[in-house]
Specification:
The protein is built from 25 helices and 22 strands. With 852 residues, it is of the alpha+beta class. The chain is elongated, with a radius of gyration of 34 Å.
Length: 852
């Protein structure tokens, strides 16, 4: 062992002679390193990865607000703009080579290949300016991408297909480029295919399948077009900085332009202006680096990924403590051999080098095995967190940065947790060790091994308690009272009818649809809606007739939905005061509305009867529009804020319409008649219903396409995918932590029994029975467990406080979670300690005394 190669051969020979030790150490490290690497893979993809574009460092986003998807008032942190405001800002940014705008959301459009027999497909679309691809620095995979000439009202309609859609939806057919596709009934030429790996400027589930120039948005939206609306903010903006230019001073300049525009050119209604002026000093535009794109998923998943990374870090600490205990026990077991090596001339440096090499090799092997675990765990997390996504542009395979992270973790693990065994190995006194293992040989590692065991127990309590809190929170979220029936309800997401349809045509279409749906075998009720629960949210400013106009604030707004006559009662939302809608509430009768309890509390004084009262939307002249005819219990319709009480909400009949005078209100009214939701009362599964629904709807209107068919229970479940992923993985890692802590306790207890075999034999020779020996061993083991519990329970409560914003109706010091964690650790520890205790009790005194 005079050189590194000799030391390496000796270390590998030692591993081969101890396969159980080697396998246990590598598997333990693989779980810890693999879990941590899996989470870092997702953190890198979601929070750190740059867009697959040229020179991403030169990209800047104009505004950092994260609202979506159409805003109509002040935003404070602006992030979305109307098209007229985008053009104003674009002209004021000479530091940028190009400034592109793109739709904040991805809507689905009905797309079919002209002349093909196949039905239309609902493709995720995004409206973009003609310089979108050149601003990002993206080259075409096939054909060409947009130019500014494509983004003119008079230009022939053109579209660009994503590489993913080109492959999966159209079989990678080269003839797609240059062919005509019918989009919402209008012919478009596919001019090119985007490059592989390009998912747009925003990382999200179901990225755009097709891009369309923003100037053709009126062609798709008809009279509901947003393009020329000054008030409607629906576009995000990214610019590419000129070489040598700086963003210094741009934000104040753009903020000044924004405030001037809000005062003079925004087109806000006159009754909004007092509040606009009051809120004006808070309105600002920030410039932020956009090399990683719009951080939509970062905002949504960042906190959850940080929690999982902390969980995996604790599991890695437990795994490392286990390996360190194994190495310490191994070093003590080999102290006679080490003493002999020192006695014949080995230096302490050689002893330390050999021990460190052993731990580093174990860590490297654990890291390699951990990569396999990491890929599997990353795939599992993606499946759990994004079940509703048809395609997610995240690769579970580790990137070069993640590989570097794994290597660094493995090496750090080997050095840090191999240092202690290496140091203890050099503390061996050759003379004392060579006297015999049973004499007064001092075990310098005893305190360290016990301390590591206490740390393992404490961290296990933290993980199990935290996982239990998250699981209980998820259970309460899913089982809360949503205000409607979920059992026996199937919800259908419908691609909205073409924008060219008139109101009379829509009313006739909806009557045919309801009649056809009610005739389906196994269906006992049907309903249509602007949107189904937990899928969307529409909101407006509320003005009550006879009440002073409210200020523009969150308390003055309400969500709303447009529904068919029997929709609410078919969903189990019974009116407890007043009446439900009926077929008599149609285009020939005065507009009526049903409101929920929170609406009444927000907009009417105590003791004031809301029935028969009138209210309206956004403008004072609209205050008398709707007459309240019924009140229903609160229900949670919006797809956000499910941890908060229900929003104020009202419902209006699908068959009625309001003849507004204001152009903006006309657009909102018309757009609200293009429904996107259907609901069936049935016990038939979605798989059976979907073919029948496609057949029935195509017979009613060939332009109708279905996006998804789910039970309401599935719809609820999908809203909590992120919470479920965190709770499931936290629970899994909590179980792994318990297992590792139990293995660690078993190892330390078994080693203690082996070390004290002689002492146990003397005790039994002096009259100790088997029960007293078992109690003696268990007392020593559980002393460490109790210390771990004493340390772990306060730490668990502290961890609960850190994740309290992720919990719903669960306290950070949840007694059930803390008790369960303590009991689980105690039971696992009991099983782990009983095995060596039973072995100790079965030792024959004569055999024990011969071990000397």
């Amino acid at each position: 062992m005079q050189n590194t190669l000799g030391t390496l051969r000796y270390t590998l020979r030692q591993f081969r002679r101890s396969p159980v030790f080697t396998s246990a150490a590598i598997l333990t490290l693989a779980l810890g390193i693999g879990g941590t690497t899996a989470i870092f893979t997702l953190i890198h993809a979601v929070m750190l990865r740059s867009l697959p574009v040229s020179d991403p460092a030169l990209l800047y986003r104009v505004g950092d607000g994260d609202n979506c998807c159409v805003q109509g008032g002040p935003q404070e942190r602006w992030g979305m703009y109307s098209f007229p405001l985008y053009e104003r800002l674009k002209a004021a940014t000479p530091e940028f080579e190009e400034v592109a705008a793109f739709q904040a959301s991805s809507a689905r459009l009905s797309v079919r290949r002209e002349g093909a027999a196949a039905a239309a497909k609902p493709l995720a679309s995004e409206f973009v300016t003609g310089n979108y691809f050149s601003t990002l620095g993206v080259k075409a995979f096939g054909g060409r991408l947009f130019t500014p000439q494509d983004d003119r009202p008079s230009s022939p309609p053109a579209a660009v297909l994503s590489h993913q859609s080109w492959q999966t939806d159209y079989g990678a057919d080269p003839a797609v480029v240059g062919s005509t596709f019918v989009v919402e009934g209008h012919p478009f030429t596919i001019v090119g295919v985007a490059p592989p790996g390009f998912f747009g400027e925003t990382l999200r589930g179901n990225p755009p399948d097709i891009w369309i120039p923003v100037q053709h948005e009126p062609l798709m939206a008809g009279e509901s077009s947003l393009l020329d609306q000054s008030v409607a903010a629906w576009l995000r903006v990214i610019g590419r900085l000129r070489p040598g230019a700086s963003t210094d001073g741009m934000a104040p300049r753009l903020t000044a332009i924004l405030r001037q525009w809000m005062q003079h050119d925004s087109g806000y209604p006159a009754n909004w202006m007092p509040d606009i002026m009051r809120l004006l000093p808070k309105q600002s535009i920030n410039l932020v680096p956009a090399g990683a794109g719009v951080a939509e998923m970062k905002e949504e998943y960042g906190r959850s990924l940080q929690i999982l990374l902390a969980v995996c870090g604790m599991v890695l600490l437990i795994a490392c403590a286990n390996v360190a205990n194994l190495l310490l026990a191994r070093a003590v077991a080999r102290r006679t051999q080490t003493a002999l090596r020192i006695a014949v001339g080995a230096s302490r440096r050689q002893i330390v080098a050999q021990a460190l090499l052993e731990s580093v090799l174990l860590a490297v092997a654990g890291g390699l095995a951990g990569l396999v675990v990491a890929v599997a765990a990353a795939r599992l997390l993606l499946v759990l967190a994004f079940r509703g996504s048809h395609f997610l542009p995240i690769n579970p395979l580790p990137s070069p940065m993640v590989l570097a992270f794994t290597c660094a973790v493995a090496l750090l693990t080997g050095i840090v947790f191999g240092a202690a065994p290496a140091w203890f190995a050099t503390r061996t006194d050759p003379v004392e060790a060579l006297r015999g293992s049973g004499r007064s040989t001092t075990d310098h590692s005893g305190f360290a091994r016990k301390a590591l065991l206490i740390v393992q127990a404490a961290l296990s309590v933290v993980l199990v308690a935290g996982a239990t809190m998250l699981a209980r929170s998820l259970n309460k979220l899913e089982r809360q009272n949503f205000g409607y029936q979920t059992q026996g309800r199937v919800v259908i997401s419908l691609n909205r009818p073409p924008a060219t349809y008139t109101l009379p045509k829509l009313r006739a279409l909806y009557r045919q649809m309801e009649e056809a749906l009610n005739r389906l075998p196994g269906v006992t009720g049907a309903g249509l809606a602007l949107y189904n629960p937990l899928t969307d949210n529409w909101g407006e400013l509320i003005l009550v007739s006879g009440h002073p106009p409210p200020r523009m604030s969150e308390d003055a707004g309400a969500s709303w939905d447009r529904v068919s006559a029997n929709y609410l009662q078919n969903f189990g939302m019974m009116v407890f005061r007043g009446r439900n809608f009926s077929i008599a509430d149609n285009e020939t009768t005065a507009p009526v509305a049903i409101v929920n309890e929170t609406f009444v509390k927000n907009f009417f004084k105590s003791g004031e009867d809301p029935l028969g009262q009138h209210f309206g939307l956004d403008l004072p002249e609209n205050a008398g529009t709707f007459r309240i005819v019924g009140i229903v219990r609160d229900a949670k319709f919006a797809g956000f804020g499910l941890k908060r009480p229900a929003l104020p909400m009202f419902y209006v009949p699908l068959a009625q319409n309001v003849d507004y005078k204001d152009a903006l209100m006309k657009r909102i009214e018309l757009q609200s008649h293009f429904i996107g939701g259907m609901m069936l009362v049935t016990k038939l599964p979605p798989g059976v219903l979907e073919p029948e629904l496609n057949r029935v709807l195509s017979r009613v209107d060939s332009n109708l396409t279905i996006n998804s068919v789910r039970t309401m229970d599935q719809q609820v479940s999908l809203r909590f995918d992120r919470e479920r992923a965190v709770a499931s993985l936290a629970g899994l890692f909590g179980a792994v932590a318990l297992l590792l802590a139990a293995i660690g306790l078993y190892g330390v207890t078994a080693y203690t029994v082996a070390q004290r075999t002689n002492e146990i034999g003397i005790r039994m020779a002096l009259g100790a029975d088997r029960a007293s020996v078992v109690r003696y061993v268990l007392r020593g083991a559980f002393g460490r467990v109790v210390m771990g519990l004493g340390l772990g329970i306060p730490l668990a409560a502290g961890a609960g406080r850190l994740i309290s914003n992720q919990l719903y109706d669960v306290s950070f010091w949840d007694p059930l979670a803390l008790t369960l964690a303590a009991v689980a650790l105690a039971l696992c520890s009991l099983v782990a300690a009983l095995i060596p205790a039973s072995v100790a009790a079965s030792i024959s005194p004569l055999t024990a005394l011969r071990t000397e």
